[in-house]
Amino acid sequence: MRLLLVEDDNHVAAALSAVLARHGFDVTHARSGEEALQALVPEGNGFGVVLLDLGLPDQDGYEVCGKIRKRTSTPVIMVTARSDVRSRIHGLNLGADDYVVKPYDTGELLARIHAVSRRTAPEDTGTGGDGVLRLGAVHIELPTRQVSVDGSVVQLTRKEFDLLALLAQRPGVVFRREQIISEVWRTSWEGTGRTLEVHVASLRAKLRMPALIETVRGVGYRLVAPAS
């Protein structure tokens, strides 16, 4: 996912960009409101999320958020030291999709980025009007929870299907192990890591496509869409 980081402090931006890059994000750094607005032309310029610090040198961050919302529907997460409810409400009313207060936990920030991008992703991305994800020879029928490869149905367990469907709805996007465990198993990472590895191995074997799910070392997994 491409992410626009709007932050005037170069040291903060460098550290955060490094963390985001390790988690699969392609980060572009804008140091001012005007630079951010230019980067979003035309129509969001392919960015999946804007991480907007409100303390900018040239314009008020709230003003920048309003201008961004007039130009594009790209999700905006405001980042600020202002923790009062009135400030949060003001930001959300201007069109922000979420609001993170400094100092924040990096894991929480990553979770919020993924949550916002899921909520705002077009419903038809990779999915036909019939609710079927088509990834080359692999068809995933979301309404019936049925998976087929080259027309042959593959029997999956409930968790195997949930795992595959999660990855397949955003091909190429790296999902952190903690995020997968939270969304598929509805629990924390502790003690569940081995279960995830077993399910990934089982999916690769059942689908007979070991390269379909790629391990991103130290981070998690992503689905590599096969050629049609």
TrEMBL record:
Q: Does the keyword Transcription apply?
A: yes
Report the SUPFAM superfamilies cross-referenced here.
Answer: CheY-like
Domain Response regulatory, chain residue ranges per copy = 2-117
> Where DNA binds (residue ranges)?
130-225
Q: Which organism is it from?
A: Streptomyces coerulescens
Write down the Pfam families for this protein, in alphabetical order. Response_reg, Trans_reg_C
Quote the protein name from its UniProt record. Answer: Sensory transduction protein RegX3
Spell out which residues are annotated as carrying 4-aspartylphosphate: 53
Keywords, ordered alphabetically: DNA-binding, Phosphoprotein, Transcription, Transcription regulation
Query: Boundaries of each OmpR/PhoB-type domain copy?
Result: 130-225
